[in-house]
Design goal:
Blueprint lengths: L1 H12 L5 E2 L5 E8 L5 E3 L2 E3 L7 E8 L5 E12 L5 E8 L9 E2 L5 E4 L6 E7 L9 E11 L4 E13 L5 E7 L4 E3 L10 E4 L3 E11 L5 E6 L2 E2 L5 E4 L3 E4 L2 E11 L2 H4 L7 E9 L4 E2 L6 E8 L18 H10 L22 H20 L1
Parallel strand pairs: 1-12, 4-12, 15-24
Antiparallel strand pairs: 2-3, 2-5, 5-10, 6-7, 6-11, 7-8, 9-10, 11-12, 13-14, 13-16, 16-21, 17-18, 17-22, 19-21, 20-21, 22-23, 22-24
Bound molecules: 2-acetamido-2-deoxy-beta-D-glucopyranose (NAG) (10 copies).
């Protein structure tokens, strides 16, 4: 009885005499618990609303050599302003009734043990938002073998990250200064450009929490080198946890582009790259602009398109392109390349303009 009173006196009056014990006896452990109860230590979590996993944050007390009796173990968050909020705690003084208790709406987890208690919280991964990026602090007060109170704590940051999501592509025909909306965005409906013309592609990318992402450009699956100009904006926070960045590519169509075969047309593609996590936008989420390149200087057989003229702008342009001089898309093999169809450039031009004129008149009717 005497010794018991002595113990309580120490606990109640000895607090200001708490000394800082070594911190490596206490750690904050983050782990992902799957449905099959397998557990995987982690240091960061990705937002995933479809996940069935749980994130467990545990205060882990490893063997403390002079551990006589623990007083209280608590798990807290520390926000950006340094404000500490206790989430759960466990008292070691009532050894019969001790269990994790909650200060919040989060159900605490853990087990009472006289010298190796565990305490933590368990969160659904599907319920996490990047606002859950915070510091967790575990604090343990205990009495050592000399009946001296000790205070130890451990702090660890948890990063909750949102991956880059979607990309939106826009195109401007720099040769006409008009936005392109009707062609180019699917492989089935490519845009037509002549060598020497230019297109300006813009990609708006949602970066999630990865504001250090860059927008990259591929030409036919290969990184575009310095033959093109590309510019990138700074990342702006557009909504909680979602940065946005704009990149644009000013591309001059070259004669080399016209050498591409018809089933390997010019494809300009944007995607997001995050260096520190080696992330690249997956293939099916990238944005691609498809271009059929025509070369007015190419010396290939010219055929005059025989498609019936419709009054849509696009068909009008394509018909015009196909009948200009020796203009051809390389790789296109003329379907009627007999000699009678061979005509000189001047004849071809004359015929073309005639056809255009007739069609123009038809279009007006
Ligand atoms: C996982 O653990 C919980 C609680 O201990 C138990 O109820 C459940 O049956 C376990 N699930 C599997 C797949 O072992
Ligand atoms: C607690 O920490 C000890 C020592 O660092 C480690 O061996 C053990 O695996 C940890 N326990 C859990 C549940 O993470
Ligand atoms: C200890 O816990 C038990 C069970 O929860 C409870 O019945 C008892 O009153 C507690 N004792 C004290 C001193 O808090
Ligand atoms: C999920 O999040 C909501 C809102 O933040 C919260 O009210 C709810 O308790 C959370 N549920 C779980 C299981 O964590
Ligand atoms: C794609 O991103 C844009 C902004 O860049 C946004 O307005 C749009 O809602 C997003 N679309 C989808 C399907 O997420
Ligand atoms: C772009 O503009 C040029 C000049 O007006 C025109 O020749 C070309 O067909 C246009 N291409 C597209 C895809 O709009
Ligand atoms: C390309 O278009 C974007 C969006 O209109 C514009 O901000 C950018 O300056 C253009 N790039 C060039 C080189 O003109
Ligand atoms: C493009 O890069 C290559 C190799 O990095 C260099 O030799 C060349 O001069 C560069 N061209 C321009 C126009 O900067
Ligand atoms: C593209 O063409 C424009 C206009 O002719 C020129 O100013 C620009 O330097 C060219 N860009 C590249 C990368 O060759
Ligand atoms: C068109 O092709 C003919 C031969 O097929 C060639 O003689 C002529 O120079 C070419 N015209 C142009 C403008 O390249």
């Amino acid at each position: 009885m005497i010794s018991c009173m002595f113990f309580w006196t120490l606990v109640l009056f000895g607090r200001q005499g708490y000394s800082q014990a070594q911190d490596n006896f206490l750690s904050v452990d983050f782990s992902i618990l799957s449905l099959d109860n397998t557990s995987q230590p982690v240091s960061a979590v990705k937002i995933d609303t479809t996940s069935t996993d749980r994130l467990n944050v545990l205060c882990n007390v490893s063997a403390i050599p002079d551990f006589k009796q623990f007083i209280i173990l608590s798990i807290n968050t520390i926000n950006q302003n340094g404000v500490i909020q206790r989430l759960a705690y466990m008292s070691g003084l009532n050894q019969t009734g001790a269990k994790p208790l909650s200060d919040s709406d989060i159900t605490p987890i853990g087990n009472f043990h006289a010298t190796k208690p565990t305490l933590g919280i368990s969160l659904k991964v599907s319920n996490l938002s990047c606002e859950d990026t915070t510091k967790y602090k575990c604090s343990l007060a205990y009495v050592n073998n000399d009946y001296k109170p000790e205070d130890i704590s451990a702090i660890r940051s948890l990063t909750v990250s949102a991956p880059p999501s979607n990309l939106t592509m826009m195109a401007i025909n720099e040769s006409s200064s008009l936005p392109i909306t009707d062609v180019g965005f699917t492989s089935a409906n490519p845009a037509a450009f002549m060598v020497g013309q230019s297109v300006n592609l813009t990609c708006i990318a949602r970066l999630g929490t990865h504001k250090d992402s860059t927008i990259k450009w591929n030409k036919n699956s290969v990184a575009i080198g310095n033959e093109s100009e590309y510019i990138e904006s700074e990342a702006d926070l557009v909504k909680a946890c979602d940065y946005e960045k704009t990149g644009s590519l000013f591309y001059n169509i070259t004669e080399e582009d016209a050498m591409l075969t018809s089933n390997n047309r010019l494809e300009l593609q944007c995607f997001v790259f995050v260096a520190d996590v080696s992330f690249e936008t997956p293939a099916d989420a990238r944005q691609t602009f498809y271009i059929d390149v025509y070369n007015p200087k190419a010396t290939t057989t010219t055929t005059i398109a025989t498609t019936t003229t419709k009054t849509t702008t696009r068909q009008y342009i394509i018909t015009t392109t196909a009948s200009m001089g020796n203009a051809t898309r390389n790789g296109d093999v003329s379907s009627s390349s007999n000699d009678q169809n061979r005509i000189t450039s001047m004849q071809s031009l004359a015929v073309s303009f005639g056809v255009m004129f007739i069609r123009y008149q038809q279009n007006q009717m």
